[in-house]
């Protein structure tokens, strides 16, 4: 009631004048530029403008994301994302009808994820989302939606523009006189887990939305190398070194480039340290050979001091890699194009720079060398012709790894 009266006093409930949709809007041009090669072309002025607009445009509304709404029973959002509730994110809309996913700062850059944390209860880091976009672009995957950092005034740009009374109700002023808010969901949603401004300003990442599912349907598919989301369980791939043989016999991994795309995703996740890739999404329009979307990267860049080799299981167990991916990795290992240097320069373009600390940047070089070492071992065992595959060719299983199926 207090928020409602406050909004009425400021005349925030009066309907705004309708705005025309501009065909040249950066978010629309970005969505129109999606092709079977990636979310955007290598040199995309639309993406450059979109990053600038998300950083500068005023917000006109704020609401819970689809998975929080699913938790509240407000919609059936199973085709979008699975509800989790252990993190906080909001959908912010802008004056040009564009919208972005806002993830607030939960962990400082210099803090590492504690060693005793399981990956499925790790923090969601706004800077990891930003860094993942830049890394994905440097690797020439172009499968992470454009993401930019921004300082948000949580009072003016969220509380005062939201029409969701539930969201309004979770705002409060802390003992330090900072404006805070928390998620509204069945668990992990208490004031202890709130995010707070200083006193109003809060860092966060803004990720551009993809086209609606009505216009561009997507499939959400379990990752064959999904991890066990329990304290003591293990999946088959974790105990069976020949697990890839089974995967190769299953459609579509048996007859498309899907397995090569899974390896790309594993390489990307290993570089970021993200262990939470339980599903992947892809556009149905591009068929079985379409690229995999690298979404939800906020659990990356948690521990620069640890390299989780198990993330590379698709590469080390299947011993295949795209030639274009390998060439890009080899280039980024050269002293004049060192991955850490390229990332450092790229991240300086973000308004929240420095996005990553120096130890995280240097960890990228170390992990890149581990990837190249793993590819080298595969080539020594099976030969380059078997391991390194042209992107348009479905690789054959190395003879020693072929599955022996019962008949």
Feature tags:
2 domains, alpha+beta, ATP binding, single chain, disordered C terminus, 407 residues
Structure write-up:
- The chain is α+β, with helices and mostly antiparallel strands and 407 residues long.
- It has 2 domains: 26-47 and 55-208, no CATH class; 218-389, no CATH class.
- It is 33% helix and 13% strand.
- The protein has helices spanning 2-9, 26-32, 45-56, 66-71, 126-138, 155-159, 165-169, 236-239, 243-248, 258-272, 313-318, 323-332, 339-347, 358-382, 384-387; strands spanning 59-64, 90-94, 99-104, 147-153, 171-173, 179-181, 195-196, 201-208, 218-222, 279-283, 321-322, 388-389.
- The strands form 4 sheets. The chain has a 5-stranded antiparallel sheet with strand order 1-2-3-8-4, sandwiched between helices. The protein has a 3-stranded antiparallel sheet with strand order 5-6-7. A two-stranded antiparallel sheet has the order 9-10.
- The longest helix is centred in the last third of the chain and has 25 residues, at 358-382.
- The chain starts with a helix and ends in an 18-residue tail after the last strand.
- The model is unreliable at 68-86 and 399-407 (pLDDT under 50).
